[in-house]
Amino acid sequence: MTSNSNATHLPTTDATKGAGVIVGGGVLRNANNGHEMAPLNTRARGDGHHGVTIVLSPPQRRSISSLSAPGGDDPTRAAWSGKMQFFLSIIGYSVGLGNIWRFPYLCQQNGGGAFLIPFMIMLVLEGIPLFLIELGIGQRMRLGCLGVWNTIHPWLGGIGISSCIVTLFVAIYYNVIITWCIYYFINSFRYPLPWSECPRLGPNNTFVDECLRSSETEYFWYRDTLDASPSIDDNGGFKWWIIICLILAWLVVFFIVMKGIQSSGKAVYFTSLFPYLVLTIFFVRGITLPGAGAGLMHMYKPKVEMLLLPNVWLDAATQVFYSFGLAFGSLIAFGSYNTPKNNCVRDVLLVSLCNAFTAIYASVVIFAILGFKATKNTESCIDVNRQLLLNHHLTNDTNLLDDAVTNMVNQLNSTNSTSIKDWGLQICSLEDNLSKAAEGTGLAFIIFTQAIVELPGSTIWAVLFFTMLLALGLGSQIGMLEGMLCTIFDIDIFKRVRKPILTGVVCLFCFIVGLIFTTGAGEYWLKMFDSFAGTLGLVVVAFMEMIAVIYVYGHKKFTEDIYQMTGYRPGWYWQLTWRYIGPGLMSILLVASVWGYIKEVPKYKAWDAVLGKGVELHYPNWVMAIALGMIFAGILPMPLVYLLRRFQILKVDLDIHQGSIRRNETTASTKEMIDQDDDAMSPDMPLPPASSLAATRFTIGDFDRNEDDDMKEIKIRQKHY
Q1: Residue 91 CA from chain centroid, whole number
Q2: DSSP 3-state of 29
Q3: Is 433 labelled as part of a ligand binding site?
Q4: What are the boundaries of the region Disordered (predicted)?
């Protein structure tokens, strides 16, 4: 062996004790592992003891299937107890509240049945390809969101941080929706239902004016439940009944996720299956109600001309993106708990079909019952008009048919519209009642609750409905927290902290921040979070995920990984959507999201107690500053981590195995390679002189790795304090 004059020599040990090491330009032969270390170039020799160059030449190239994943050798990593538990967990996470109260609204507003065309196209071109990327890369790496992107390249570590931050924002406000469901669930056991009639006040037992100006369900929602303030500037104080329900909601979530999938895996049997049972019960009841056919006709009557509008396609792409729960890190976490040979391609296709089926199925149920509600409202309106016509002596026929009443009022309206207003007559139209669209909380807590009141045995239906919403909400909330906690648990400094303790700290933090939603302005804050915290950030994260896997990790490498794990080699469809169509659609969605914020000043709907209806207001500047802060908090970690690591401002210590290797056509794990280095340095080996290493620590900076048929090269830079 030869070395340069500046090298520090360590005597070689025998084969039973490991290996000798030469620091500097020397050569080392590892008798156990067959690794040969030698100077590679002149520059390496010139670095002296300030640089270390190591060449690992394995005795043979292992196949990809034999290489362990970065997290694969961790005996403490959780794993699914069975295929059914995994499938139900991912169904419970993906199929959430958006399938119930968002998709039907979009169908109604964007061409009825024609909306299914752009929805299915976007599902195939955008949703399924990105779904497989997240699930497949998680299963391949067997790491959480942060570990996966750090492992692909340290410069991409910010993707995991951004995903975790956005997930935190969404989890904070999403549990407030569960809180409201708990409050309604508790009140569903009262008879009659508290939102079925206006409350009475005073010695004369008169109805509350605010309720008369709005409706029974609106009054119960805005006044009894939220005690809504007139604007977001006026917080209206904390509402103790909502705080109690929020505590209960976070306690339920904590006990479900406190032990990871060991505990949450048992809850998914309820959160995933019960909603389908309730939907089926509502379906059987709904299609037998009068007016159900009218509701379904209104819902699915195709308006093909609307497919020419860009917003229809944008809404379809957005719905697909959010209905799958992409970019939260949860799918990566779920995939990391799978065995390396799990058929993730089949899982993606099955879950995608279930997701689309659930959205369409729920729409049928919702609009069958809303058709019944619209029919009842129209009949009540006609009955009132009939009585008014008799009172004003416009007819003497007490048995006047509904169509005759409607025609008479329409004729009066065409000749003397002022008079019919003075007489209190109304235009009663089934189509107008069906067109009163609502989404989100408006659909669940106002429109649908009014429909439930009209059903015989309304208490039972209310209990079933809000139990279903609770199950759907908990399924998604559990998935989001699991993804976030998986990321935290994969950080070495938290590995010694017990999972229940760390989970409790996260839940407590979310509860404290969530108290802002228990004020009179709580719903306004929730809409602000929903509009800003989890929209643009998620789109950027999803776009970067696709770029990271397909163009940094390599689409060929990822294709080979899928083949080794499943036995199926992704063909032209996957290659086209991964490399071109998917990134293109995500770019369009990103630009459209930014343009949506720019083209008009964001507004929110506040409750006006005097008018008895919602009014649109502009967000004040200080609220917009908070909103922009949340957007940047979810996006900035990506460029920030890139800059810090690109220019060597921040180093990653050797004891953090995640985020230490930049991969280029390779799959070997960082942890595996560090462990090999540790094995080479036997504890019995004499140490080098203190003068050469006393003030030195090893860090991994730019970590270039190229693999050919004979050797793997690693360049590790040594940095002085």
Answers
A1: 13
A2: strand
A3: no
A4: 666-686
